[in-house]
Amino acid sequence: MNKQYDIIIIGGGPIGICCAVEAKNKGLSVLILEKGVIVNSIYNFPANMTFFSTSKLLEIGNVPFVSHNNRPTRAEALEYYRRVVENWELEIETFCEVLSLKLEDGIYDVKTNKGNKVSKNIIVCTGFYDHARMLEIPGEELAKVKHYYDDAHPYVGKKVIVVGAANSACDIALELYHKKAEITMVVRGGDISPRVKYWIKPNISNRIKEGSINAYFNTEIEKIEENKVIVNTPNGKIELENDFVLAMTGYKPNYSLFNTLGISVTKTSLKEPIHNPITLESELAGVYIAGVIKAGMNTSKFFIENTREDANLIVNAILQKNKIS
């Protein structure tokens, strides 16, 4: 017979780990199910990425985060969250994908690719980085099109189109420019995003102004072909010779999983998972929403530092509900 947990957490990112720590600290049994590796989203960040947040703001579980500089690197964050899991002796199954959820006699039966798990409560905190917003244009399926960026090496000396003008797009454009790639930015709006980091925006703006980085504003890609792309500019349609397209167009929550689990979302363009703002419980009794997915498509609203409190809200709500019942 499967072990019954007080809480099963779907998603082993920083907030999932934070929820597990809070649950264990309050005497509850908890299991984390992660379809990839521990903090899978951070693992898939660019290899040389540095966080905008300070290490102090990324701390969870009362485990100090010591980094070489005020803003930690991806490698330091991976090491830190591994250490939190080890320190709290958290039970976590990696490469374990949740396939369905079924409520029977007040207990949730969680079907995964590694067998079934059972729990009284579920916390969903799956983030959004695993699901890119697609361009939905012909040619997007070509191997030259990437929605994730890892390292500059493959693009050295190549003609690269970077789609977008937010933080990721600007960071990548600058890094590849310094690695001698020929960079063209294709931007739907009329300027660089106002949310771009304050030390990055002047740099990218100056490179565009001097012509070191080409940029087409108020422009969209119409079609991607093997050796070129076709773009619609304010002055008409043009063709650009091209080796790679890096589509930094953002990400979204896993709405397919929400549908599979039975989690309803709002009918607005934000498509936020419906939940109680105080307890974070969804319309499904005993199923809670945590982390950045609370905001739906508004992926710039929440971060690690302003969702750490979700763990306390949810665990207290579960304990209160059990006390009343």
How would the blueprint of this fold be written?
Blueprint: E1 4-10, H1 14-25, E2 30-33, H2 40-43, H3 74-88, E3 92-93, E4 98-104, E5 107-112, E6 115-124, E7 145-146, E8 159-163, H4 167-178, E9 182-186, H5 201-210, E10 214-216, E11 220-224, E12 228-233, E13 236-241, E14 244-247, H6 255-261, E15 287-289, H7 310-324
Helix pairs in contact: 1-3, 1-7, 4-5
Q: What's the quick description here?
A:
Helices cover 23% and strands 23% of the residues. With 325 residues, the chain is an alpha/beta fold. It is built from 7 helices and 15 strands.
Descriptive overview:
The chain is α/β, with parallel strands linked by helices. It folds into two domains: 4-131 and 251-324, FAD/NAD(P)-binding domain; 145-247, 3-Layer(bba) Sandwich (FAD/NAD(P)-binding domain), CATH 3.50.50. It is 23% helix and 23% strand. It is built from seven helices and 15 strands. The protein has helices at 14-25, 40-43, 74-88, 167-178, 201-210, 255-261, 310-324; strands spanning 4-10, 30-33, 92-93, 98-104, 107-112, 115-124, 145-146, 159-163, 182-186, 214-216, 220-224, 228-233, 236-241, 244-247, 287-289. Strands 1, 2, 3, 4, 5, 6 and 15 form a seven-stranded mixed sheet that branches. It has a five-stranded parallel sheet with strand order 7-14-8-9-10, with helices on one face. Strands 11-12-13 form a three-stranded antiparallel sheet, with no helix packed on it. Strand 11 (220-224) and strand 12 (228-233) form a beta hairpin. Helix 1 (14-25) packs parallel to helix 3 (74-88) and helix 4 packs across helix 5. The mean pLDDT is 95.
